[in-house]
User: Which sequence fits this backbone?
């Protein structure tokens, strides 16, 4: 299964989702991330807390969804509310599209401890979802069934 995570700026939540999915899912799922208006830079705390969790960060970069026309994802998951409301490119074609709202830890304006808690909580939430996603991916569901399962998972 191929998944494309979308967040408007592709600097935090979608990056975290890509890295965690590839770390947890291994060969079962191939994940990429992109943005409709990419910032061009991965948030430094995204890299910091992924490394803290022993997750590979070497190939992460903020990219446009236009860069993935040839990727042909099976599933497109938006992880921020503004990306969920955007019109997706036509080349997403028949990909199952779902929204997994995630709080943005990069927006926390508090102490270093509060920022760390926000990033760790987001990483934990994504990890839990990806672990469940692996079970869903193995079921061989129809697109409608897959959408229903992924939507339910995103609401948890």
Assistant:
């Amino acid at each position: 299964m191929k998944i494309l995570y979308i967040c408007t700026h592709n600097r935090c939540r979608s990056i975290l989702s890509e890295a965690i999915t590839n770390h947890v899912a291994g060969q079962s799922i191939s994940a990429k991330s992109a943005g409709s208006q990419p910032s061009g830079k991965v948030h430094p705390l995204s890299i910091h807390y992924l490394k803290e969790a022993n997750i590979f960060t070497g190939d992460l970069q903020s990219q446009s969804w236009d860069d993935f026309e040839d990727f042909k994802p099976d599933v497109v998951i938006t992880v921020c509310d503004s990306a969920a409301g955007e019109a997706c490119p036509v080349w997403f074609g028949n990909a199952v599209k779902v929204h997994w709202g995630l709080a943005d830890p990069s927006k926390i304006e508090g102490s270093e401890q509060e920022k760390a808690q926000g990033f760790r909580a987001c990483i934990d939430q994504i990890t839990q979802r990806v672990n469940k996603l692996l079970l869903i991916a193995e079921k061989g569901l129809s697109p409608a069934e897959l959408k229903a399962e992924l939507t339910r998972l995103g609401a948890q």
About this structure: The longest helix spans residues 112-137.
